[in-house]
Write a structure and sequence with these properties.
Blueprint: E1 5-9, E2 13-18, E3 26-32, E4 42-48, E5 58-65, E6 78-84, E7 89-96, E8 101-108, H1 116-128, H2 130-162, H3 168-186, H4 189-202
Antiparallel strand pairs: 1-2, 1-4, 3-6, 4-5, 6-7, 7-8
Helix pairs in contact: 2-3, 2-4, 3-4
Length: about 210
């Protein structure tokens, strides 16, 4: 492979599946899950390139898995298999483990349409923007962690209210949750990180 095959994951990150330099044919699989409660559809966007942000690479297609069972966020287990042959034909299979619901799509990977010079340009761009991309990845990861904690805190507080178990710590959680929500709205990374740490310390272990 002259360039890496990735799939887009939470926050727009490019998660490498078949890395640049791997001899063909090749098979690689990875397990993913949902990002929302009772999520019914997972759309797997596939990219070619070395940038860690998905939309900075070449989009080559997608697979859409529908009919997922009702389940909390992070509940369903979805196996994604990349199977690429020597002609650069990529078969992507997504399977939800519990129901065995499966969707397969066959895509053409475009290295044969990229000249060596074009590949060099893409590799140079990945190197030139490395520092900027790294900072963006760290910001996305911080926001992903924050949103996951917001979801956990909301579930905890709903449970406390349902059983009238509120206490002084719950009020602190409410306050930190509000502070984190405001930081997320303002897209301010340092307060996001700070409030995520503080909220995490207040919440009981999951």
């Amino acid at each position: 492979m002259p360039l890496t095959l990735s799939m887009e994951t939470l926050g727009g990150l490019a998660t490498p599946i078949v890395r640049r330099g791997i001899p063909l044919p090749a098979k690689r699989n990875q397990q993913f899950t949902t990002t929302a409660d009772d999520q019914k559809v997972v759309r797997i966007e596939i990219f070619l390139g070395e940038r860690p942000i998905a939309n900075q690479n070449i989009r080559i297609g997608h697979v859409e898995l529908t009919g997922l069972p009702d389940a909390p966020r992070d509940g369903p287990q979805i196996d994604v298999l990349f199977d690429i042959d020597q002609t650069c034909t990529l078969t992507v299979t997504a399977k939800e483990k519990k129901t065995a619901n499966t969707k397969t799509s066959q895509l053409r990977v475009p290295p044969e349409h990229l000249t060596p010079e074009q590949i060099k340009v893409l590799l140079k761009a990945a190197n030139d923007y490395k520092d900027k991309d790294t900072a963006q990845v760290r910001a996305i990861e911080a926001k992903n962690e924050a949103y996951a904690l917001v979801h956990r805190a909301e579930k905890y507080l709903q449970n406390q209210q349902r059983y009238s178990l509120g206490n002084a710590t719950d009020q602190q959680i409410e306050e930190k949750l509000a502070s984190l929500g405001l930081a997320l709205q303002q897209d301010d990374i340092e307060p996001i990180k700070e409030n995520t740490i503080h909220l995490g310390r207040l919440l009981p272990d999951a």
